[in-house]
Amino acid sequence: MNFAIEVMVIVMIKCVAKLMDRLKNITIVLLSFLELSFNPIEAIAQQPNFVFYLADDQDMLDYGCYGNPMVHTPAVDKLASEGMKFNRAFTAQAICSPSRSQLYTGKYPLKNGCYVNHYSTYEQTKSITHYLKALGYDVILAGKSHVGPDKVFDWTYYFEDEPNDSIGPHSGIPLKKIQNYLDTVTRPFCMFITSHYPHGPYPKSTSYNHQDIYPLPYTNNANWRVGYYENIKTDNYMLSVILNMIDTDDKSENTVFVYSSDHGINGKFTVSEAGLRIPMIVRWPGKVKAGSISNAMVHMTDILPTFLEIAGGETPSDIDGKSFLPVLRGEKDSHHDYVYGVAHKQNTQHTYIFPSRMIRGEKYKYIMNTNAQDALNNNLGTDQAVNIFIRQGANWQPEKPFEELYDVQNDPWEKNNLADRADFDSIKNEMSERLKAWLTEQEDFILDYPAPVLWANLHTLDKTTTFNKIPPEMEGILSNSDLYRHYPEKASFAPRNLRAELLSSNRVKLSWTPSIYNKGVVGYQIILNDEIIEVVKSNTTVINYSQGVKVQVFVRAVNNSGQVSKLSAPIDI
Description:
This protein is α/β, with parallel strands linked by helices. The protein has helices at residues 3-38, 40-45, 74-82, 96-105, 109-112, 128-133, 175-184, 223-248, 273-276, 303-311, 325-328, 376-379, 384-394, 425-441, and strands at residues 49-55, 84-90, 138-143, 157-159, 189-194, 255-261, 277-283, 292-294, 298-299, 339-343, 356-360, 364-369, 403-407, 496-504, 507-513, 521-528, 531-536, 540-544, 552-559, 571-572. The chain is built from 14 helices and 20 strands. Strands 1, 2, 3, 4, 5, 6, 7, 8 and 9 form a 9-stranded mixed beta sheet that branches. Strands 10-11-12-13 form a 4-stranded antiparallel beta sheet, covered by helices on one side. A 4-stranded antiparallel beta sheet has the order 17-16-19-20, with no helix packed on it. Helix 7 runs parallel beside helix 8. The radius of gyration is 30 Å and the shape is globular.
């Protein structure tokens, strides 16, 4: 072979060999990259954990980091120094079950179905257990539950309270079960640790006296607050144990830790700032700036979408909350323009018909009390038994008007109601319209029934209990047909605003507004006195009646299952 050709062949062979080696190396790198990128175990290991610690019945102002120098909250104060403290965090309802249900579902109480204490959510509702399990998480509840049904809140594990008489009047957080889980867990997890403290009952023997009680802008009652402070101290101890577990197990760097309270004790059952404004602190080392403070308006319903975004999931389109991750990262200093709140006094220990709804913006807050005394006459109907309880509810807080308007920037604890001032009419009207639009979007039954008799599974209006003393003549006078049911499909599709236009001496045109729950309605029964005279499909009709005879007209809806709604309010013609 020619020497030049031999050299060329040898060079080509070496080049091919080098190329093969390079391809081999590239292949190894590529396979390694693919293995790293798509190995589900490795991917799951990189997902952050979530711990949400929830206190029970503690005012936002009753923490050292929120301005109370007398109360013992060093663990919470330390969290605030290590994370972001929110000055304007809110819950939608200042009562236990509704506040917790919205936290776990991302939906306001009216939408998820738990809008009265001791109610369950609607069975078709999806909670955080559904969404985070799909992303490979364990989702754990440790401590107080007070939510249902189980099919909605399908926890991977539920760690019940541990009886511990040495710490206080309640069972304690299940510390041993939590520690055992943290020692053995191999998956990303989301754990809600829900304390019974500082909720009453309060201990009689405490380390505080009346002089230790820090005055708040909305209460001067020191008697019960002595025991309340003691329960706060107990809760702070349990929180400190939990934080120590997280930090010593080398999980703090990869754990988003959130602290909050379900609502304030001094505004319980109301839509006041004292009830709906809550503490919230978020610690996430390396991601959330230590010692930072945010004035963004955030809401309990925002927790679920925020956790989902951090975990790599998508926010469901049907929830009310939205992720405030950009606020945590320091990329934004605002979040919601408005937050909303609801209140009911029914199915509580001292039970009354007194619904309230509120909208709060950056500067103004508007409240609508639908069974206030100045709205009472509009709420009374023909059922005298129901009227008794409607009047009783209006008398519960006789000083409360139908409308309230506050400048919460300059009057943060709602001392000066501006609703009757003419120079605030435009602001009041704007806030009222925004609230009504939200109520419509939420399909709030209050638009149909401003003073409803709500179904009660614990504290009934017409039964005497330890807490609810009523005269003997009021015992057992309500029937099932008087009740607005928990689940709207059962009774809430009644038409409303029945109107009559006289066409001649014996002809009248009837029209009405379909209920907001009119899905499945196929027709309307027109009832003259006690007789169904016709069934129509539209929400208007013309009827004839005998001249000179007094008649009473009702309308009720019929759905595609053959169910009939409650009667509309009657019209005399």
